[in-house]
Amino acid sequence: MTTETSSYRIQGATGEWEVVIGLEVHAQITASKAKLFSGAATAFGAEPNAQVSLIDAAMPGMLPVPNRECIRQAVRTGLALNARINRWSRFDRKNYFYADLPQGYQISQLYHPLVGEGEIVIEPAEGEVKTVGIERIHVEQDAGKLMHDQHPTRSYVDLNRAGVALMEIVSRPDMRSPAEAGAYLRKLRAILRYVGSCDGNMEEGSMRADVNVSVRKPGDAFGTRTETKNVNSVRFVMQAIEYEASRQVDVLESGGRVVQETRLFDPDKGETRSMRSKEDAHDYRYFPDPDLLPLELDEAFVEDCRASLPELPDAKRQRYESELGISAYQAQVLTAEAETARWFEALLAAGEGKVAAKAASNWLISDLFGALNRLGLGIDDSPVSPAQGAALLGLVADGTLSGTLAKQVFEIMLETREDPLAIVEARGLKQTSDTGAIEQAVDTVLAANADKVEQYKAGKTALFGFFVGQTMKAMGGKANPQVVNEILSKRLG
């Protein structure tokens, strides 16, 4: 796979600057309904401190036991990213004090992570392809949450998230523009959702990114980086990179130096601000957790994880192009989200070979997506089911409906959720191929527009479309367009 170099540069007073970006993505393992070391629930939106076990609260004598399903999902994610699965890994204690961390340390993996090097292929722009390296994936427990807006003088602690299983997916500093970082996050989110190891819901905090940014003159060594913590949308990640890179350029060009520090992103102002200094990247006094044995994976476990993987987006996209004859653009749109691909395949399956893949993809991307955007709905909330969509397309394919009538029927389906055939029969919307009726309508249109007929015969052939439109209008849109064209061609000779 070739790697294209981004042309993104920041123009400073002293010349061009290149941006160097690495992302640390925290993805909550949602396939398991329990936490990493306890059986407590993990559902979003529960009452504060309603999902906290004795282990999560760090009660004395409570010993952690790894959740096998969490480990399995992390391994499956690693395999989906073409990463090395380490057969031997271990948990470490990351020691720091914070009020929402009951143990006074976080159980994580530093020196021996579960998953090693991998890669993601991204397309930041049309015609551009780039491979971004994955350094590692390690499994760790989340901390709780402090709430500062519940009381005028006190902060409250909610431990519902304490102990929730996270995968920290650490990229190499291979990205060179906000667009590349956005493409990377979108692709990673899609893969996680295909695999089923994380729901990718950034608004609910189940996927968030720490954004590492530095700048340098092109070709120079890496500069000093800052880390902007817990950015929770693709758009905000791109904004944070753009702001932070420009800020660092201003600092360097004014004679200052960039300080290695942790920063926060303010989405209202589109700015980053300093949170705390971080002179040493590993200042947490890590040591092996004495309560947990190392994880040792046998080959059968890893192969079982591999066999459980679904068809991933890149493979599915290639199959759509080669086997279904769909354009590269449409294949990309249809495979960008797991839900869209599943809906499309359900649409084809419901069509039972009667619905052409190209017609189905055209309808889904233009008609259905357009309607859902207008209604503010996702595809899983579509008022029209895949089976109903297939039935509608089948009525077009067999000549029962024209394209115009199909659009009318579709709008009614969106409102009523009725099946298309029932709508057609109840409202008399069936297309007619009755040549006698169409001939009569054509003759009426030509007689009423004798001047235009003369113009057409004199060489103004563009008027043919006018005659078609007038005939369709005269027949309430129910005439078969092919028959209309054939009769008009004969009449106009």
Automatic annotation (TrEMBL):
Root EC class: ligase
Keyword Protein biosynthesis annotated: yes
Pfam families linked to this entry: GatB_N, GatB_Yqey
Function summary: Allows the formation of correctly charged Asn-tRNA(Asn) or Gln-tRNA(Gln) through the transamidation of misacylated Asp-tRNA(Asn) or Glu-tRNA(Gln) in organisms which lack either or both of asparaginyl-tRNA or glutaminyl-tRNA synthetases. The reaction takes place in the presence of glutamine and ATP through an activated phospho-Asp-tRNA(Asn) or phospho-Glu-tRNA(Gln).
Matches recorded under InterPro entries: Asn/Gln-tRNA_amidoTrfase_suB/E, Asn/Gln-tRNA_Trfase_suB/E_cat, Asn/Gln_amidotransferase, Asn/Gln_tRNA_amidoTrase-B-like, GatB, GatB_C_1, GatB_Yqey_C_2, Gln-tRNA_amidoTrfase_suB_CS
Full protein name: Aspartyl/glutamyl-tRNA(Asn/Gln) amidotransferase subunit B
Family: Belongs to the GatB/GatE family. GatB subfamily.
Catalytic activity entry: L-aspartyl-tRNA(Asn) + L-glutamine + ATP + H2O = L-asparaginyl-tRNA(Asn) + L-glutamate + ADP + phosphate + 2 H(+); L-glutamyl-tRNA(Gln) + L-glutamine + ATP + H2O = L-glutaminyl-tRNA(Gln) + L-glutamate + ADP + phosphate + H(+)
Molecular function GO labels: ATP binding; glutaminyl-tRNA synthase (glutamine-hydrolyzing) activity; transferase activity
Subunit field text: Heterotrimer of A, B and C subunits.
Transmembrane segments: none
Keywords: ATP-binding, Ligase, Nucleotide-binding, Protein biosynthesis, Transferase
EC number(s) given by UniProt: 6.3.5.-
Keyword Ubl conjugation: no
Any one GO BP annotation for this protein: translation
Domain Asn/Gln amidotransferase stretches: 342-492
